């Protein structure tokens, strides 16, 4: 990975893990390639990052043998280095960013391919909030619903919600710090913030809104389609 001396001014990179199978979505293939509002889901995601001028480069991590981007060209750098877990895919992607000149002190914004409702404005909001922070942070939505803990299909307890947030993406951290965090955490962490927390840091929570949802279940596709179509009216 490039050294700090070779690039004194930190840049902003985006890394989009796109190697998942999307088993909960109920589709025959990877959900990120399902069409929503006339385009593959991941197309909406990449379009949002392409519209942010401060992003130096977007890297997409796909599974080995994935031929989608061979048939569908993109300006993003596509690398078939997907791992067995999300954490492994992100770690491999960070290594590839280093191979193309990213430095350890540069920032990376890691974003779910299936969060196709992200906007350039939200990405810029995260960069503005975190660029001067010593740790970095993530987009998140303050929990509005009453939160229950379950045992055997029944309510076991009601949990206080005042300090609860839903973690979203992008999540923005220094490349070197995130690489160290993921190497220490192994493959069990479900987001980058969790790995950073494992180093003893406290990432910044940057409020966004409920619309930056992750398309996960079959009913989410219709909701995302309606929201995307509503934006172009």
List the helices and strands and how they pair.
Elements: E1 12-17, E2 35-36, E3 39-40, H1 41-50, E4 55-61, H2 68-71, E5 77-79, H3 86-99, E6 107-110, H4 120-130, E7 136-142, E8 147-151, E9 154-159, E10 165-174, H5 175-185, H6 192-198, E11 204-207, H7 218-231
Parallel strand pairs: 1-4, 1-6, 4-5, 7-11
Antiparallel strand pairs: 2-3, 6-10, 7-10, 8-9
Describe this entry's structure for a reader.
By secondary structure, the chain is an alpha/beta fold. The chain has a domain at 12-134 and 170-188 and 211-231: Spore Coat Polysaccharide Biosynthesis Protein SpsA, Chain A, CATH 3.90.550. The protein is built from 7 helices and 11 strands. The protein has a 7-stranded mixed β-sheet, with helices on both faces. The protein has a two-stranded antiparallel ribbon with strand order 2-3. The protein has a two-stranded antiparallel ribbon with strand order 8-9. Helix 2 (68-71) links the parallel strand 4 (55-61) and strand 5. Helix 3 (86-99) runs antiparallel to helix 5 and helix 5 (175-185) packs across helix 6. It starts with 11 loop residues before the first strand and ends with a helix.
């Amino acid at each position: 990975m490039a050294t700090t001396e070779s690039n004194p001014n930190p840049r902003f990179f985006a890394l989009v893990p796109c190697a998942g199978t999307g088993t909960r979505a109920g589709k025959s293939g990877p959900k990120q390639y399902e069409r929503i509002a006339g385009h593959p889901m991941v197309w909406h995601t990449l379009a949002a990052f392409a519209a942010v001028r401060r992003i130096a480069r977007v890297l997409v991590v796909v599974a080995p043998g994935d031929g989608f981007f061979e048939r569908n060209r993109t300006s993003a750098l596509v690398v078939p280095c997907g791992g067995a877990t999300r954490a492994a895919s992100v770690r491999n992607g960070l290594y590839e960013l280093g191979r193309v000149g990213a430095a350890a002190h540069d920032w990376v914004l890691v974003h779910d391919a299936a969060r196709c409702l992200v906007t350039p404005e939200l990405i810029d909001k995260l960069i503005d909030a975190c660029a001067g922070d010593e740790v970095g942070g993530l987009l998140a939505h303050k929990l509005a619903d009453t939160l229950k803990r379950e045992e055997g299909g029944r309510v076991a307890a009601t949990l206080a919600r005042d300090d609860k947030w839903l973690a979203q993406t992008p999540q923005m951290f220094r490349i070197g710090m995130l690489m160290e965090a993921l190497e220490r955490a192994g493959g069990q962490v479900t987001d980058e913030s969790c790995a950073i927390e494992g180093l003893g840091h406290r990432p910044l929570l940057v409020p966004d809104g409920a619309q930056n949802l992750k398309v996960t279940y079959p009913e989410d596709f219709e909701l995302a389609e309606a929201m995307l179509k509503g934006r172009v009216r």
